[in-house]
Structures are given as C-alpha cells and as structure tokens.
C-alpha cells in the first residue's frame, strides 16, 4: 500500500465538482485551489465546461494527462464506476467523500464491499467512504470540505468523525496550532487508523500522532504497530464509547466484570498510548509533546505572581501523581538574590503581584538550572501592574536555552490576549487553569517513562499440553462449550498449577467411596454447566467428616437443587480435599474480540462481583506486569499483611498468572477462564486452585 499519491499527489481530480457554492463538490474544489496546491487540478462534471474558471472534463478518461489522486463526490450508485475508471486510468489514490455505504443499510454494506474489492484489485489506496477528506498543509493540499488550511505543524490528526475535524480546525486556528496531516477515515473500508499510524511512524513532519476513534477494528495489528510507533513518537487517542455495556449475557465472573472499554484501557496502557478524555485534553497533551522536551522525571517547580493559584497548581500536580519538588538550597539562595524579601523561594516560587519580566525571567532561569527540577509551570494572573506581553516574550526567549519542559498558565482572557498570542505563536503550551497544565505534564512524564521501559520478556514454562488437547477435543466432539470443574482443574494442573486431590462422583455411593479413600474433612461441590454460582443454590458443602455426612449431603444437594432449578443438568459432584488456609483471590481470562486474551486479578470468593476489586491486563504478560496488576488492587494491601497477619505468597500468584497467560495463548479456542478462588498460603507455601471454570469459543480456532 502506497501513501505517496494520496498524501503527496502531484495532480488531483475532483469527480463531482460543482459550480453551486452549496454543494460539497464546489467546497472541495475551492479548498484545493484556495489552499495553494501547486499541481494540476481537474474538475470532473459532464454538465459543465468550466468550474471556478478551470476547464471541466466529462469523465476521468477524457483527461489526457496522468492523475495521482481522485476525490469522489457523487451519489453512491456512481462511485463504483468511478473507481473502475480510476483503475483504467492508472490512478493510485482515491478519497471517497460520498456517503450511503456501510454506515447505512445492507445494500450500502454490499456496495462498500464491492468498492473495496475493486480498489484493491487496482491497487488504489482509498480512504472513506463517508469522510470529510484529507489535508496535508506541507503540500498545500486541502482535499476536504472543512475549514481552510491555516498553517503546517507537527501534529497529525486521524479521525473517524469528519464533523469533529471541522471543529478541531477552528479550535486550532484560535490556538495557533498547526498540523502535519489531517485525515478523515470515515467508514475505514479500505484503509484505517492502523494503516495511517504505520505511515505516520516514519513521517518526518509529524512529531505527535493524535486520533479520534470510535472503535479499533484490527486489534492485534493495532497493538503491533502502536508498539513500534510509541518508541518513536507519542500516540494520543481520544476513544469514545467508554460506557457501552459489554456482552449481554456474561457467562463467568471475568465476563461480567470486563466491560467493553476495559480492553482498550489495557491495550493503551501496555503500548504507551496516551488516552485523552476530551478534545481539549487531546490537544493539551499533543501540543505539549509536540512543542516541549520530555521531562526526565516527575519533579515540577511552580513560579507564580499570586499565592492562591500557586496553591491550586500544587494541589493539581500532587493529585495527578507528580511531585511538587522541594527546591534545593543552592537554588533558593540564587532566588533570594533576585527576589524581594517578602517573596517566597520555596515551591511554589511566589514572585509577588508586582513582578515584571526581569523578576519572572531571573526566577525562571534559577529554577530551570536546578538539578532538582525536571519541569516548570509559570503562572500569571493579570494584576494592574502586570505586563503580560513582556513577560510572555521573556518566557519564550528563556525556553530556547534550556532542555526542560516549560508550560504557562496565564489565567485570564481579554486582558492578557497579547501575551497568550505570543506564547501560542512560539509554542509555549498555555493552559487557562492549573488542572489542565498538571494533566498535560503528567502525560509527558508517563510517556518518557514508557520510552525508557525495558524490553518486555515473556517467560515460557515447561507444561503438558496433551491433557488439554484431549479435554478440548472431547468437549468439542460433544458440542459442549463449558468445561466442568474436574476437567478444568486438570487443565490447570497440566499448566503447572496446584490443585486439591479430588474425584468426580455421579452417585452417593461413589462419593462415599472417594471420601473414605481421602482424609476427612472433605468438600463436595455440584457439577453442572447450568450453575455458575454454586454457593447461591446450596451447591457447596464443606467440612464433611463422615461417610453418613457425605451421603446425606449428596442426596440433599441433588434434591434441593433440582427443585430450585428443574432444568439444570446435574452431572454429579466433585469430592475434594478441604483447603482451609490461605487468602482467596481470583484469576480469570476473557477473550476480547479485538485484542485477544484479557487477564483478571482481584479479590476472590463469593463477593467478587459485589466488591469488584479487580484489575485487568492483556496476555501475554511478564513477571513485572503481573506484579503491577496485583499491586493495582486494594486487595494487595491485605495480601502483604495487615493488623498482625503474615503476608501471603505473592510470588505464587505471579507464577500462576503467568501460567494462565501461557495457557490461553497456547489455546486460542479458550474463550473464558475463572479460577475462583485461588487460595494463597503464606510466603513459600504456594497457592492452590480451589475452583475453576473454562469456557470454549463457539467456533474452533
């Protein structure tokens, strides 16, 4: 796939160009001409001889010269024939603005599928359909029907929403932000965000890739490309649809706890992708990353001409997880030489309300030169004697001499508009309130930490795949998706996990026989694919100490459960040794349709879905990532020992998570896993799988 003709075309045609200013075909042609595109431009319309004083052609095939890129703005029914003309003409790039395809009805979906087929046969790089267009300010190309090109810049924007691009362009003009590329990908029929990310990874004009996405269709490819991109330049994504519910009928604890957005969070965190919470946040972060050097650490200094805003900024930084650094004595001494006695040389550095550009400038130099400071935020409030223009110019000049990030928080509007414009023109990120500045600085710190993160090493363990293969094959042959507890535990044991001694019994006599061969007390659990929460319906009996108790428990369990759930398939019971000690945690896996196996860890037992103290990550997982997953829960504090209790074997949990990760990567036909509870003993005692559940995908992989 070649992006050259799409992004850097030397000639362009507009099929559906119009002389009517109310038509999209007119707006696009005018934008191309007004934007200063240097190459030949060919309007195509069989009903016109000229449009905007340019010769108009009846069709693409009537143009004698070759064409690099075609913009298509016609009714849906004609688009396919235009693509076929592109193939005959040797055109290698197309921007399909026309709507009425996959976003509408079944007929539209069929038309879109055929459109993509023909484009790929002709090796045409095509964006759309149903898009705003494409803008490359460095090429003076505005092949879209949004705002005029303002200025070239270092931020690339890829968006599923065309309307959002128009709004962002308007905001960018106000804030003096330039773009290296703006691409509206519409229905993503032929090329999508992943293709653009891969291209932009090597684009010399792009320092930051920003994106608005409603979904990611190719999750595995996205992860591969995003990981490559993230080590070179930041990827900032505003992903909408955070609150959509997950699967309607969750069949496991993990399934019920993993909403549709959790996998995106896991993927972004793994890949160093920065997730924006709003359009404002998207560009707060993007401009900071595009225009300022990365901070080496999280130690931030504040310079302010007012006490209250300085305190607000301190709160915002601390709440974001950054450090309001204690300024070293040498820097304090230097500050005291330049500040009035009533000024504060602590952090925030208060230069007082009458501060001029010299006082701001000398203070800023002192702080930037301090080895204890990684980044600086300068606050200005518009007081009567404040010369915002001079102070802004001073910040700009000083910022050029240091390799530490500098942000401004000029709090005001009309009174300080000249200063704001100077900051924006000279790429000093400006934020109207402390919280925005703190969040942007945080993302810069986190991105730098990601870039320094060591190479991920996935450890492989010696396991026995054969029992797993046999069990899955057996269940598949019977068209069963849910693997019962006994077989599920056999799978776990095959992958290096410890399970209690246990036997499956279909009659009370078998249950007694197995119990007598084991050491009392024993536990008994119902075996049924129709029962998820065994304890809720009396399907678990523990502490059975005699054959009579075992027999009675079996008979009562079968009778009572049958009365409560008449249609339940009761296959028997699992007779098992009692595991009385240890803390209960849950391990799980739910396969996400985009990103693959998603692991879960949290508080185990019967209240897992009530308390929901769980965390998620994507498989495969490293030992370090396992520990991070465990430590991200409140349960972790309980595991380390509180109120005189001894800590549990965290290492055993980590190992079990890695083994589970290897299992679900080795067997993609596994759709869900629940290990609840995993009972974890004290340090060195390991962990035991007390209950397990495995669900296969509906289709074989």
Q: What is the oligomer described by this structure? A: single chain
Alpha-carbon distance between the two ends: 29 Å
Indicate the low-confidence ranges by residue numbers. 244-258
Give the helix/strand class. Answer: alpha/beta
Total helices: the number is 24
Number of strands: 30
Instruction: State the helical fraction.
Output: 25-40%
* Form type: flat
- Beta-strand percentage range: 15-25%
Strand order of the largest sheet: 9-8-11-10-12-13-14
Radius of gyration: 32 Å
Mean residue pLDDT: 92
Please give the largest β-sheet.
Answer: 7 strands, mixed
Any overview of this molecule?
- The chain is 38% helix and 21% strand.
- Strands 9-8-11-10-12-13-14 form a seven-stranded mixed beta sheet, with helices on both faces.
- Helix 17 packs antiparallel against helix 18 (485-494) and helix 22 packs across helix 24.
- The protein is built from 24 helices and 30 strands.
- It is of the alpha/beta class and 701 residues long.
Blueprint (SSEs and pairs):
Layout: H1 4-7, E1 12-15, H2 24-34, E2 41-44, E3 50-51, E4 54-55, E5 69-72, H3 76-89, E6 93-96, H4 106-121, E7 125-127, E8 133-136, E9 141-144, E10 152-159, H5 162-174, E11 179-184, H6 193-201, E12 208-213, H7 219-230, E13 235-239, H8 253-257, H9 262-271, E14 274-275, H10 279-291, E15 299-304, H11 307-320, E16 323-324, H12 329-338, E17 349-350, H13 357-369, E18 375-380, H14 388-399, E19 406-410, H15 417-425, H16 434-451, H17 466-477, E20 482-483, H18 485-494, E21 502-505, H19 508-517, E22 522-527, E23 540-544, H20 547-564, E24 572-577, E25 583-592, E26 596-603, H21 608-611, E27 614-618, H22 623-631, H23 635-639, H24 650-666, E28 670-680, E29 687-689, E30 692-696
Parallel strand pairs: 1-2, 1-5, 5-6, 6-7, 10-11, 10-12, 12-13, 13-14, 15-16, 15-17, 15-18, 18-19
Antiparallel strand pairs: 3-4, 8-9, 8-11, 20-30, 21-24, 22-23, 22-24, 25-26, 25-28, 26-27, 28-29, 28-30
Helix pairs in contact: 3-4, 6-7, 10-16, 11-16, 12-13, 13-14, 14-15, 17-18, 19-20, 22-24
């Amino acid at each position: 796939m070649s992006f050259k003709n799409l992004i850097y075309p030397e000639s362009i045609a507009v099929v559906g160009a119009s002389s009517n200013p109310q038509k999209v075909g007119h707006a696009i042609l005018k934008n191309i001409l007004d934007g200063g595109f240097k190459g030949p431009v060919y309007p195509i319309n069989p009903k016109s001889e000229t449009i905007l004083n340019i010769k108009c052609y009846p069709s693409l095939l009537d143009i004698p010269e070759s064409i690099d890129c075609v913009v298509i703005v016609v009714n849906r029914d004609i688009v396919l024939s235009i693509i076929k003309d592109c193939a005959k003409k040797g055109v290698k790039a197309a921007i399909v603005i026309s709507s009425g395809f996959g976003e509408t009805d079944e007929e539209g979906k069929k038309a879109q599928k055929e459109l993509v087929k023909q484009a790929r046969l002709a090796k045409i790089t095509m964006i759309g359909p149903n898009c705003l267009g494409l803008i490359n300010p460095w090429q003076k190309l505005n092949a879209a029907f949004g705002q005029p090109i303002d200025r070239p810049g270092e931020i690339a924007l890829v968006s599923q929403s065309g309307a959002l691009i128009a709004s962002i362009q308007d905001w960018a003009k106000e804030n003096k932000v330039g773009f290296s590329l703006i691409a509206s990908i519409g229905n993503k029929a032929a090329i999508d965000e992943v293709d653009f990310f891969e291209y932009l990874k090597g684009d010399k004009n792009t320092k930051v890739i920003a994106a608005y996405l409603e979904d990611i269709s190719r999750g595995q490819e996205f992860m591969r490309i995003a990981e490559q991109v993230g080590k070179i330049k930041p990827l900032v994504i505003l992903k909408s649809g955070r609150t959509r519910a997950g699967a309607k009928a969750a069949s496991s604890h993990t399934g019920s706890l993993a909403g549709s957005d959790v996998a995106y969070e896991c993927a972004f965190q793994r890949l160093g992708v920065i997730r924006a919470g709003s359009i404002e946040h998207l560009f707060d972060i993007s401009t900071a990353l595009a225009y300022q050097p990365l901070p080496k650490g999280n130690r931030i200094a504040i310079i302010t001409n007012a006490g209250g805003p300085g305190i607000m900024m301190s709160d915002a930084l601390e709440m974001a997880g950054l450090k309001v650094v204690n300024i070293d004595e040498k820097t304090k001494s230097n500050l005291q030489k330049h500040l009035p006695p009533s000024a504060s040389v602590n952090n925030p550095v208060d230069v007082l309300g009458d501060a001029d550009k010299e006082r701001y400038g000398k203070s800023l130099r002192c702080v930037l030169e301090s080895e204890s400071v990684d980044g600086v935020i300068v606050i200005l409030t518009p007081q009567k004697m404040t010369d915002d223009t001079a102070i802004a110019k001073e910040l700009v000049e000083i910022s050029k001499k240091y390799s530490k990030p500098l942000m401004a928080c000029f709090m005001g509007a009309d009174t300080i508009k000249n200063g704001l414009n100077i900051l924006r023109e000279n790429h000093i990120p400006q934020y109207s309130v402390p919280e925005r500045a703190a969040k942007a600085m945080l993302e810069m710190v986190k991105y730098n930490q990601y870039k320094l993160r060591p190479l991920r090493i996935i450890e492989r363990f010696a396991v026995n795949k054969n029992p797993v293969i046999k069990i899955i094959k057996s269940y598949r042959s019977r068209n069963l998706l849910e693997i019962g507890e006994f077989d599920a535990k056999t799978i776990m044991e095959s992958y290096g996990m410890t399970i209690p001694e246990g036997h499956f019994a279909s009659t009370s006599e078998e249950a007694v026989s197995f119990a007598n061969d084991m050491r009392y007390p024993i536990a008994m659990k119902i075996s049924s694919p129709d029962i998820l929460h065994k304890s809720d319906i009396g399907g678990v009996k523990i502490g059975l100490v005699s054959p009579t108790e075992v027999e009675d428990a079996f008979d009562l369990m079968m009778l009572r459960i049958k009365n409560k759930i008449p249609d339940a398939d009761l296959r028997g019971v699992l007779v098992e040794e009692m595991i009385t000690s240890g803390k209960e945690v849950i391990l799980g896996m739910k396969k996400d349709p985009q990103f693959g196996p998603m692991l879960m860890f949290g508080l185990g037992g019967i209240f897992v879905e009530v308390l929901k103290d769980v965390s998620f990550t994507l498989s495969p997982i490293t030992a370090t990532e396992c520990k991070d997953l465990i430590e991200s829960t409140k349960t972790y504090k309980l595991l380390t020992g509180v109120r005189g209790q001894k800590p549990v074997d965290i290492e055993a949990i980590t190992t079990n998570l890695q083994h589970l990760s290897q299992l679900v990567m080795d067997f993609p036909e596994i759709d869900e896993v629940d290990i609840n509870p995993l009972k974890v003993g004290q340090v060195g005692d390991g962990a035991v799988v007390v209950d397990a559940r495995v669900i296969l995908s509906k289709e074989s992989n």
